[in-house]
User: Which sequence fits this backbone?
């Protein structure tokens, strides 16, 4: 890797005509060596035209959703350092040099920009902040690592992080997938506070609070099933076992007292529930072995790529 790494910015956009020009200009001003790629996600306004005039390379991803944009961009672009930022001008582009420097000085594979409100009219609404904190606690508990702002869209990555990331999500839950990927691979990472302000006039938020929140919850459930199978199937097994005991203990007590089983349906149902509990536990143990093999393969893929070029603190 050369001493001057190739740095790119990926800016997903959908109808951001009012904001994207400033985002591109601010990124170029903050990091003169950066190449900015704006991915137009089927905008119906002049997003692509404004971005190109501001100095960005504009590409189009026709599948709607931020996750689709990130997957396409990570596959298309080859660079040493990747910066991901939304095109709505809510994040402080001036924080980019500090985030890139932290990645190189580590060297790290992931730097997360944690949002800090800069004005009374911040885009970080109280309801969104509360939901984000709840998701942070839930994911931290399930995956064994703590994160301050898992839904932040402002991040910097190394090439080996990007090229080992599967990017399966389609919409705004991509941030959750990125966060869990860092926890599963246990990559070196850091968090840096960044300014977060309201959208410029004429720009409209694409977030759907309850819809996107439910999608994130569903993704977390899927990730727990695939990445923590013993926990997931252990909970399922425990639930069926408790139901089996509730139905079966009276039958066992009656048999111990009278030597007869008069509640045959309850006995059959209780036995079936206990069998399901045992099978669920066995499935969890088997999938845990499969998980170990997948984790080893993912780690080896990660190690195929060079670490970020180290530079000492300045």
Assistant:
């Amino acid at each position: 890797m050369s001493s001057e790494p190739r740095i790119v910015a990926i800016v997903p956009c959908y109808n951001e005509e009012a904001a994207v020009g400033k985002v591109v200009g601010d990124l170029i001003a903050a990091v003169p060596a950066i190449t900015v790629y704006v991915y137009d996600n089927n905008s119906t306004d002049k997003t692509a035209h404004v971005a190109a005039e501001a100095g960005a390379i504009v590409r189009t991803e026709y599948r709607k959703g931020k996750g689709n944009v990130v997957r396409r961009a990570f596959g298309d672009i080859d660079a040493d350092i990747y910066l991901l930022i939304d095109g709505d001008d809510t994040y402080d582009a001036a924080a980019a040099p500090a985030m890139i420097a932290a990645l190189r000085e580590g060297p790290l594979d992931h730097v997360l920009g944690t949002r800090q409100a800069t004005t009374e009219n911040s885009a970080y609404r109280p309801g969104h902040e509360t939901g984000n904190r709840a998701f942070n606690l839930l994911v931290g508990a399930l995956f064994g690592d703590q994160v301050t702002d898992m839904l932040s869209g402002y991040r910097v990555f190394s090439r080996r992080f990007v090229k080992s990331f599967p990017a399966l999500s389609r919409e705004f839950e991509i941030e959750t997938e990125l966060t869990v990927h860092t926890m599963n691979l246990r990559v070196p990472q850091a968090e840096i506070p960044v300014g977060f302000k309201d959208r410029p006039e004429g720009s409209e938020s694409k977030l759907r609070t309850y819809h996107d929140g439910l999608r994130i919850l569903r993704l977390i459930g899927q990730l727990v099933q695939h990445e923590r199978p013993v926990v997931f199937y252990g909970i399922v097994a425990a639930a069926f076992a408790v139901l089996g005991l509730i139905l079966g203990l009276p039958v066992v007590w009656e048999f111990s007292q009278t030597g007869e089983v008069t509640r045959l349906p309850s006995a059959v149902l209780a036995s079936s529930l206990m069998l399901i509990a045992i099978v669920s536990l066995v499935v969890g143990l088997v999938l845990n072995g499969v998980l170990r093999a997948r984790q080893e393969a993912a780690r080896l893929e990660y190690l195929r790529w060079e670490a970020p070029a180290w530079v000492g603190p300045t």
Q: What stands out?
A: Strands lie at 7-13, 35-40, 57-60, 81-84, 110-117, 155-158, 189-196. The mean pLDDT is 88. The chain has two domains: 7-222, 229-302. The domain at 7-222 is CATH 3.90.550.10 (Spore Coat Polysaccharide Biosynthesis Protein SpsA; Chain A).
